[in-house]
Write a structure and sequence with these properties.
The structure is a single chain. By secondary structure, the chain is an alpha/beta fold. The chain contains 13 helices and 14 strands. It has a five-stranded mixed sheet, sandwiched between helices. Helix 1 packs across helix 3, helix 2 packs across helix 3 and helix 8 runs antiparallel to helix 10. The longest helix has 25 residues. The chain binds zinc ion. Zinc ion (ZN) binds next to loops. Pfam families: ROK (PF00480). Keywords: Carbohydrate metabolism, Kinase, Transferase, Xylose metabolism. Transcriptional repressor of xylose-utilizing enzymes.
C-alpha cells in the first residue's frame, strides 16, 4: 500500500469536491451553478477528481432536474483513503483506522498503563502496527495520523500536560518514523472537531468534554479556535467560586475542581464512604434513586449550566455538545442543565449529549486528517452514509 504524502489540492478542486460531498449526488451542470464556475472548468476539475478516484460517476440522473439531456450524477468516494486516529491519555491509548468518510475498519485500545516520556513512542508504534494490519487497499493509502493529547498543544507542539510528561516535539519524532502526515491536537479540541464534522449540521459547535478535568473545544465553520497558545476553551479553569478550592493551574475555585467527574467521585467517595468510584457505579446508584448521588449529579448539572451560560454569552455557538460518560447514560441531566439556563441571553442555547460519545476525539482525528487531505475546512460528513 502506498503511504506517500499528497500535494495540497487546489482551491477550485476543493470547492467542487465539497459541493459533491454536501449534495450527496450532483450533476456537472448543477455543480457549475452551485460553485459559480463555468462548465469547462467544472468538466476539467471533475475529470481530474475521477482520475484521482475521489469521485464516482454513479448513475444517470433525472433530466427534469436541470433541463436538457439526462445528466450523469457524481458522488464522493469516501473510501478513497484511510486515516489513523489515536487518543493518547495518561492511562490508556485508544486508536482506530477509518476511511476518510468516518467508516471504521478497526479499533483497538491499550488500558491499565501509565504513559510516560520513555514509553509513549513504543505505545504509539504498537497501536499503529495493530491498526495498519487492518488497512485495506485504497487509491491514496493512509493520508494521516492524528494524535490526541490530554494537555495543551500549541501549533502542534506539546506545551503543558498536567497528568503525564511527554516530549514537546512528539510530532517531529513521529514524522521521522512514518511517511504520512502527522497531526497533534488537544483531545477536547478534537472532540469538538469530531462533533462538527461527523455529529452535527451546525456551523458553530462548542463541545464540553467532562472527564478527569473539563475542557471545551470551539469550532467555527470547521476551524478550531485555539487561541495564540492553545489555551482557548480551557473552561475547566474558569473561576466558579472566587477564593474556592485550590487548582493545580494556580487559580482558586476553578470549575473543574467542582464539576469534573473526578470532583463527583471524590465528593461521593467521602459522603458514601466508598473507595474507587467510577462512572458505572455512579450511574447505577443514580438510576436506583440513591438520594446522595442524585443530589450530587443535580448540583453537577447546575454547575455545568453556569459553564454553558458563560460559553453562550462569549461565543454564541449554534450548538453545545456535552461529552460525559455520566450524562450520556442519564439523559435527564441534560434537561436539568437546560432548565438551569435561566439567563435571557443563554436560555435558548441548544444543548445536546454527544452522539459520538467516547469516540468524539477519535472522529476528530479522522476529521483533521481528512480536512487536510481534501483541503476542505468546513467539511461535513455523515458517518452513517
Ligand atoms: Zn484551574
Amino acid at each position: 500500500m502506498i503511504h506517500s504524502k499528497y500535494t495540497i489540492r487546489e482551491n477550485n478542486e476543493a470547492i467542487i469536491l465539497n459541493a459533491i460531498i454536501s449534495q450527496k449526488e450532483i450533476s456537472r451542470a448543477e455543480l457549475s451553478v452551485l460553485a459559480g464556475l463555468n462548465k469547462a472548468s467544472v468538466s476539467s476539475i471533475t475529470k481530474k477528481l475521477l482520475e484521482d478516484e475521489l469521485i464516482h460517476e454513479d448513475r444517470i440522473g433525472d433530466a427534469a432536474r436541470i433541463g436538457g439531456r439526462k445528466p450523469i450524477m457524481l458522488t464522493f468516494n469516501g473510501k478513497a483513503a484511510l486515516t489513523l486516529s489515536l487518543d493518547v491519555a495518561p492511562n490508556y491509548i485508544e486508536g482506530l483506522i477509518a476511511y476518510i468518510d468516518g467508516k471504521i475498519l478497526y479499533e483497538s485500545e491499550i488500558r491499565g498503563i501509565k504513559v510516560s516520556y520513555d514509553n509513549v513512542l513504543a505505545y504509539i508504534t504498537e497501536m499503529v502496527e495493530k491498526l495498519t494490519q487492518h488497512a485495506l487497499e485504497t487509491p491514496h493509502g493512509i493520508t494521516g495520523l492524528c494524535v490526541a493529547i490530554h494537555g495543551l498543544v500549541n501549533q502542534e507542539e506539546i506545551t503543558f500536560t498536567p497528568n503525564y510528561v511527554l516530549q514537546s516535539d512528539l510530532k517531529a519524532q513521529l514524522e521521522e518514523m512514518y511517511p504520512f502526515y502527522v497531526y497533534l491536537e488537544n483531545e477536547a479540541n478534537l472532540a469538538a472537531l469530531g462533533e462538527y464534522t461527523f455529529g452535527s449540521i451546525s456551523d458553530s459547535v462548542v463541545s464540553l468534554s467532562i472527564h478527569t478535568g473539563i475542557g471545551a473545544g470551539i469550532v467555527e465553520n470547521g476551524k478550531l479556535r485555539t487561541g495564540k497558545k492553545g489555551i482557548a476553551g480551557e473552561i475547566g479553569h474558569s473561576i466558579l467560586y472566587p477564593d474556592g478550592r485550590k487548582c493545580p493551574c494556580g487559580n482558586d475555585g476553578c470549575l473543574e475542581q467542582y464539576a469534573s467527574h473526578q470532583a463527583i467521585y471524590s465528593e461521593l467517595e467521602q459522603m458514601l464512604a466508598l473507595p474507587d468510584l467510577n462512572s458505572s457505579v455512579v450511574i447505577e446508584r443514580y438510576k436506583k434513586g440513591d438520594p446522595v448521588v442524585q443530589k450530587t449529579l443535580r448540583t453537577n448539572a447546575h454547575y455545568l449550566s453556569i459553564a454553558v451560560n458563560n460559553l453562550a454569552v462569549i461565543y454564541e455557538p449554534d450548538l453545545v455538545v456535552i461529552n460525559s460518560s455520566i450524562y450520556s447514560q442519564i439523559p435527564e441531566l441534560i434537561s436539568i442543565l437546560k432548565g438551569d439556563l435561566k439567563g435571557k441571553l443563554s436560555c435558548d442555547t441548544s444543548v445536546v449529549s454527544s452522539s459520538l460519545k467516547r469516540k468524539a476525539t477519535l472522529f476528530g482525528g479522522v476529521a483533521k486528517s481528512t480536512q487536510n487531505f481534501l483541503n476542505i475546512q468546513n467539511l461535513k460528513m455523515n458517518k452513517d452514509s
